[in-house]
Amino acid sequence: MSRELATIVLTALGATLVIASLLFFLRPRWLLGWLKGMLVFGILLAGLYTLAIAVNVAGYQSLSGMQTVASIGTRKQGDEIWRVTLEPAEGNPLIQTVRGDQWQVDARIIRFSGPLRWLGVAPGYRLERLSGRYMSLERERSAPRTVIGLSDGDWPDLWALEQEFDLPFVEGIYGNATFMPMRDGAVFDIRLSASGLVAVPMNEQARQAVRFWDE
């Protein structure tokens, strides 16, 4: 099931459950005591939960297998100052100045189980931030840091709620690329699976940076 179709199905189901439960409360004669009231309240909660999932599915990109989600290019502007170009697979390129010797892109991943998996709702991802850091511990503690948000932080944030309350049928995973070295003219692909991010050097400058870093 595509992300768009899954969003429509979950939205329709959640809205139906919410409306049905409200109709019960508006017609008290339909209530058969406390038990039915609790049942209706449970239906209302299920509807709201389904709607929250639908909203978050719409805000995440579908994830199937290992796929390239963005590319990163770096250009030197000065000592520990770089122009970083991030081109997501879906969306507009982002060009920012990043301080440090290395860069990192973080992503949030959501996987589904139970009835949501039976519906064919694929795992989703959302790129969260681009940041830099220094190789020197002293510089890391004292020098200016760069942290750039890549998402709007929609509410309700199902990923954050799952981390705090261990929600049913939802698993939130924080996947992040290993810090990779800055180098003038280097280009990296950022690839993502359901378990996390991997940065892959795509040109000779990037491969040389990785080799020099590993030595």
TrEMBL record:
Question: What's in the keyword line of the UniProt record?
Answer: Membrane, Transmembrane, Transmembrane helix
Native organism? Marinobacter salinexigens
Q: What is this protein called?
A: Multidrug transporter
Q: Which residues cross the membrane?
A: 6-26, 38-60
